[in-house]
Amino acid sequence: MTADRPPFRDAQLPLDKRVDDLLGRLTLDERIAMLHQFGPPVERLGIAAFRTGQEALHGVAWMGPATVFPQAVGLGATWNDDLVRRVGEAVGTEARAMRARDDRVGLNVWAPTVNLLRNPLWGRGEEGYSEDPALTSAIAVAYTRGLRGDHPHYWRTAPVLKHWLAHNNETDRDTASSSVRPRVLHEYDLRAFRGAVTAGGVAGVMPAYNLVNGRPNHLSPHLRDHLRTWTDQELLVCSDAGAPSNLVDSEHYFDTHEEATAAALRAGVDSFTDHGTDSSLTTARVRGALERGLIDAGDIDTAVRRQLHVRFRLGEFDPELDPYATVSAFDTDEHRALAQEAAEQAVVLLTNDGILPLDPAARPRLAVVGLLADECKLDWYSGTLIRRSSPLDGLRERFGAENVTHAEGADLVRLRSAAGALRVPEADAAATEVRGAEGALDPALLAGRTDLPPLTADPDGDGTTLALIDWGGGVLTLRAPDGRYLSVADDGRVRASADQPGGWVVQETFRLEPHGDGHLLKHIGTGGYVCVAADGAKVAALAEEGDVFTLETVEHGTHAVARAAATADVVIVVAGNDPHINGRETEDRATLALPEQQDRLWRAARAANPRTVLVLASSYPYAVGDAAGELPALLWTAHGGQAAGTALARVLAGDVSPAGRLPQTWYACDDDLPDLLDYDIIGSRQTYLYFDGAPLFPFGHGLSYTTFAYSDLSAELRGDLVRVAFTVTNTGPAAADEVAQLYARAVAPSVPRPLRELAGHRRVTLAPGAGRRLEFEVPVAALGFWDVAHGRWTVEPGTYEILAGSSSADIRLTATVEHTGQARAPRPVLQRPVVAADYDEQRGTVLADRTKVRGDCVTPAAAEAPGELLFRDCDFGAGTAAAALEVSGTGTVTLALGDGTVLAAVDVAAGGGPYAYTTLQTPFAVSGVQDVRVGLTGSVRLASLGFTPAT
Questions:
Q1: 385 & 427 share domain
Q2: How far apart are CA 612 and CA 608, in angstroms?
Q3: Which Pfam families match (predicted)?
Q4: pLDDT tens-place string over residues 375-420
């Protein structure tokens, strides 16, 4: 190559040679600078700045107007891999088009989220696809393929999967540890990530904030031991925002940031997202770690090399060859149609006694009521709407505006203090309308404004009537008659200035706290209390400084809803959540219950008109047993993006037969749920895989406007595959989609196995009377489990049922296959030490970090309560003489047989901290195959047990 065109710019050279050439030209300081999220340009080499991270969960987010598709959980509800791939293509295309006009838009997209929806109280459930690893993996493969593109060398965008690993709680999310036993790790959490990585459409992963087994995810040994073994491709690991600092500041896992940075880099973190755009702290920490000998230049080179691989794949150095470099498709007719199609396919019909579909030709009078009837809600990871369709908009368009009446159902109230009634000053249209690019209303530009007058007190009048919505748990929003929400800006003033609640810290939520004969009005975002001074309403820091308000109800929302319902032929109640309130990033839900105000609204509508249909537009499931039992129809849809209302109206009108299916179990009540921090889905019987109670609606559930018959199931084991086929026929009057679901289960397993487990799915469109033969190839390995006794994946010999049906609980056909092979041997405890984490069952224990680098140990969950481990079928052969316990901490370890007979008790008083292990010997005489119980008390940490054969 010539001097002015170095080898790294030669597209004919192998990628590795190009990367090595560029890496070799970078100085150490230039390489260190690239470790931060915002890597600076290298002007002497003609290299531009590079930013890791562009949110693209269901559209390009945070960068202004873009096509907004349904929430991720809604895409999961479509059960349609092809559709989701097309959505990924559209999102990736718009990212390219937006970058062409704004270089702040990144092509290293942080999407999708593949964390499993294990617990429906998780605040970020809207971001995931399903509680099932197979469905999650299939949808993630589809989305990443769309984002990546199909060119053999160049990528449309470079997707990063979130969040590695076992992350399902916002409560104490940066300090809580998920206790994940090996079976759950291999059978559940890893599976959600593996499929997309092995499919080749993933550029990397982002570790989660939480710890797993006592070790922060940003130090996860599984990045090396598992993730990087799944592909020959270099993978980029991007830290979550602020997480590198958390290793010291909140988790206290290291004493210095230099130690933490070095440990994260060695564990495999390649890009540090910390302190926003200021890279100085990160680069100083890297240099400090280098000077202390905690890392060497090779560790830095490894991380930079992975970043460069991504940049080359994105065509940065070959703009003339990059097929995506000139992409300009943005907000096209095709993208708009796709957004509508996705929203239609995401609608799930939960119950229906025949009231649906409605007949537009009959011109029914509809009352469209409820707090979300005229809303098109966005979430934290949405783009800005270019166009908007609420349920009210869609129904007016489809059924005729003259046939549709509306009542929101918010309570209309006045708030009065000693200074007078709260009054919202008038604002002219120019002051309240702030528009961004493409003329779209930008809510982010409205909230936090300080150019509008604050609220005042009206001492002689009634003030302003406000719409009060209680989103549950007493969390309120208050809205002025012109649609502006009360909000608090940085100056502490209370203004009607927000188009919608939103922001990282929501400034539009309040709480009425009883105080004397009235209430204090607490602003939740700041924790302060509203008072009205001469210069307007503001937030005071202390409760004593807040005004006492009386709440005057002008009209109850239930009365308005009942009036509208009484004159209608059919009532459509639209209820649900605001994705920025009571369940979102940083905040888990407290209950499955529908907020009381919304519960009252559907009951008021039904009392006035029994022909009431409830539509739940929400990011997560609700326990709505009464509604399911009393109302003639119930539907659910995730927030459906820009076409949500049009899609819902078309489903209600029968233009589209609903075929969405639940991607997670809907439980009947809070009592059905385990503790939010209990990650042992096997031991605590979580998700449809193990839950043996009666759910409100099962995984995979969804009804149609037609009927389907299943027939002619065949299942045959051939080599490494189970070949399955069956026929689905539309036996009803309407063309419709059916989601055929294939499950498998072990009939007589030796260990607890799923009650049924998704093995395949297919969404098919069938005309009335039409049938289709569906064929599936299920790897035999999919019938297996992680054998903790031998540390490997195992498919036991025996009978396996193959189940075909319309949901996990609606099985229409069953066949069996016989798998032959060698039966599991007992646990070979004399051949190698037993890792304590490889237990079969446990009670009262948690897994912890064996060392700060790798390995697990077991310790009591509470120092004041004993814990117990059970190891089944331990083969002691002709007999043992002693047991060796690798332990740290303080407490007692007891060894007993399965029947409870105690054979040894060892007191542990190891000094030197939790990682200072010692090996203690104790006599232990036992022979044959036995179950062993190990009791733990105090702060003892058990890493392993070894057994000495008798001589």
A1: no
A2: 9
A3: CBM_6, Fn3-like, Glyco_hydro_3, Glyco_hydro_3_C
A4: 999 999 999 999 999 999 999 999 999 999 999 999 999 999 999 9
The closest alpha carbon to 411, from 365, 361, 470, belongs to: 470
Cα–Cα distance measured from residue 444 to residue 809, given in angstroms and rounded to the nearest whole number: 44
Q: Two tokens at 415?
A: 């708030």
Say how far apart CA 509 and CA 192 lie, in whole Å.
35
Q: CA 410, 416, 421: angle at the middle one, nearest 5?
A: 95
- Helices vs. strands in the chain: H and E counts, helices first: 21, 48
Q: 380 and 433, same structural domain? A: no
3-state SS assignment for residue 932: strand
Q: Is residue 1 a part of any domain in this protein?
A: no
What does the DSSP assignment read for 687-750?
Answer: HHHH--S--SB-TT--B-SS-EEEEEEEEEEETTEEEEEEEEEE-SSS-EEEEEEEEEEESS-S
Is the domain of 193 the same as that of 259?
Answer: yes
Look up tokens 């166009």; give the residue.
387
Query: Is residue 443 very low, low, confident or very high in pLDDT (cuts 50, 70, 90)?
Result: very low
Residues 42 and 185 in one domain: yes
- Locus of tokens 């929101």: 408
The answer to whether 378 touches 385, Cβ cutoff 8 Å, is yes
Q: Residue 939 domain-assigned? A: yes
Sorted by sequence, the CB contacts under 8 Å of residue 826 that are 6+ apart come out as 789, 873, 874, 875, 929
Q: Domain for residue 686, yes or no?
A: no
Cα–Cα distance for residue pair 477/507, rounded to 1 Å: 10
Give burial (CB, 10 Å; 0-12/13-18/19+) of 591. Answer: middle
Q: Based on the fold, state whether residues 386 and 524 are members of the same structural domain.
A: no
Residue predicted with more confidence, 624 or 450:
624
Give the end of a domain, one of 819, 844, 871: 819
Q: At what angle do helices 297-313 and 15-25 cross, to 10 degrees?
A: 130
Residue 908's domain spans which residues? 834-949
Alpha helices in 469-623 (DSSP H): 557-566, 596-608
**Region of residue 235 (left: phi > 0; alpha: psi -120 to 50; beta: else):** beta
Distance between CA atoms of 750 and 789, rounded to whole angstroms?
12
Q: What is the total count of domains within the chain? A: 5
Residues 378 and 503 placed together within one structural domain of the fold = no
- Length of the chain measured in residues: 951
Alpha-carbon torsion 137, 134, 340, 569, what sign?
negative
Query: Which ranges in 422-474 belong to alpha helices (H)?
Result: 429-432, 443-446
Task: Enter the DSSP assignment of 131.
Answer: S
pLDDT tens-digit profile of 728-774? 999 999 999 999 999 999 999 999 999 999 999 999 999 999 999 99
Q: Is residue 158 part of a domain?
A: yes
Last residue within a domain, chosen from 619, 648, 672: 672
The CA distance from 372 to 795, in Å, is 49
Give the Cα separation of 160 and 227 in Å (integer): 13
Q: How many CA atoms lie within 13 A of 239 on its CB side?
A: 32
Q: Which residue has the tokens 């679901």?
A: 741
**Domain of residue 794, CATH code:** 2.60.40.10
Identify whether residues 587 and 465 lie together within a single domain: no
Beta strands 834-835 and 941-949, pairing class: antiparallel
What tens digit of pLDDT does each residue of 74-109 get? 999 999 999 999 999 999 999 999 999 999 999 999
Distance CA 721, CA 779 (A): 4
441 has pLDDT over 50: no
What does the alpha-carbon distance between residue 755 and residue 733 come to, in Å, rounded to a whole number?
Answer: 34
CA distance 520 to 529: 7
CATH for 536: 2.80.10.50
Residues with a known catalytic role: 240
In a 13 Å sphere around the CA of 527, the CA atoms on its Cβ side amount to 2
Q: Based on the domain organization, do 118 and 267 belong to the same domain?
A: yes
